[in-house]
Amino acid sequence: MKLKPNKAGLSRQTAQTTIMPLRYKEGFTLLEVLLAMVILTVGILALFGMQIGAIRGNSLANDITDASTRALDEVEQILAMSPDDVATRSNNAAINTVYAGVGAGGANITADSVEISGNYTIYVDGTPVLYPEIGGEQVGMRFEVCVVWPEGGVIKQVSLLINRTMRRA
Asked: How many CA atoms lie within 13 A of 81 on its CB side?
C-alpha cells in the first residue's frame, strides 16, 4: 500500500516521525527518574530521623516512669513506718552523708540512706519538722526521695518531697 503525500509533500508516516516525535513519546527520562529517587530518599531519611527521635523520647519516658515508680515505692515504705522508726531513720548521723555532684546539674545530695537498684541510685533524706509554737517539738518529718541514673553521660534525676506527720500517743 502506497501512502499519498500530504500538502507538505511528505507521506503520513514520515510526517509523524519527523515533525512530532516528542508528542507521542511515552515513559520517563533518566534524569526524571533520578530526580524522583533523590526526592524519595530525602523523604525517607527525614522519616528515619523522626523515628530515631521518637525512640529516644520513649526511652527517656520509660526511664522517668521507672525512676518515679522506684521513688514512690520508697515513699510507701516511709509512710508505712511507725513514728519511732521514722525518727530513728532520719536522725542517724552515721548514715547522713553528703554525696557531691550526683544530683541533677552536679548538685550535692545529703542522704540518710542510699540504695542501688539496677541502673538507679535511690537517696532518701529526712529532715525533722519543728514548730516553735509548741515549744520546738518535732511534729513530723520532711523526706526527699531522689532517684538518680546516668544516661548518655548526663545524670538524670527524679525527686519527690513528702511530709510525714508523727502522731504520738
From this structure: 20
